[in-house]
What we know:
By secondary structure, this protein is mainly α. The protein folds into two domains: 11-58; 71-305, MetI-like fold (Orthogonal Bundle). Helix content is 72%, strand content 1%. The chain has twelve helices and two strands. It has helices at residues 11-57, 62-67, 83-114, 117-128, 135-153, 162-186, 190-198, 203-214, 216-231, 235-240, 258-266, 275-305; strands at 71-72, 79-80. Strands 1-2 form a two-stranded antiparallel sheet. It is globular, with a radius of gyration of 25 Å. It starts with 10 loop residues before the first helix and ends in a 5-residue tail after the last helix.
Amino acid sequence: MNKNKNIGLRPELYKRSSRSYIEGRAIKWILLACALVSIATTIGIVVSLIIQGWNFFMEVSIWEFLTGTRWSPILKPRAHGVLPLVGGTMLVSVIAILFAAPVGLGAAIYLSEYAADRVRRIVKPILEVLAGVPTIVYGYFALTFVTPYLQKIIPNMIVFNALSAGLVMGIMIIPMVSSLSEDAMMSVPRSLRNGAYALGATKFEVALRVVVPAALSGIIASFILAISRAIGETMLVTIAAGATPRLTANPIESIQTMTAYIVQLSLGEAPFGSLEYNTIFAVGLLLFCITLIMNLIGSLVVKKWRQKYE
């Protein structure tokens, strides 16, 4: 029995086989190293947040932090209730998704069901350019362009407000909603569409009653990922939404988000290791948990309602 499978090969074939084997092993280890770097980075971030956050919670109770309605960690009388920051973050995110969801879904339906291939190849990259615009540009766009127009409609709106920040953030996340939703719709088999057309359905009915339900898991996942993106946005809300930690549902008032607070205090003079300094990591840890929960919900939605076609 031949123990060496390469015996009998010509020398050049044997060298080529050995080189391919070595290259394959090298690529495998390089890719494994890349994956380990990503995992190690994530673990390092989590450990850093937990250690510094633990120092904060040694002085402030978790219950007070999560249920308090006043946030003033620097000015006296100090208070460490994070609900105003969470409320501001959610207010801007809700406004953003209420604007981005219908617009992004409509764009996805057009690209997948109505647009010709040539038009799709032109429009989709142009739409995705919005995702490459720096967020600080969106912030100044909201502050100097959107807010003045909104003030003509709502005279009592102040310069820094949640509405303009939310609307511009909705523009920013439209590419995520439209691209992911369009990919989900394009994966729906053509046979389902043809069957609906054979029953006399119009193109609009096929899109809404056949394609959208069949691609529902991907569409919902795109919404959840877009909300996660909105929750973690920093520079836009720092510039346009203001720096007033206020627990309110009024979108024309100034608010402060979790990310905006982290930026504000990071630029200040909070002494290293102080309670004020550790609030950054407590808020960051809460933000990490919220985005993690949103991503887990998105994964569960995809797994539960995913439809596989052959």
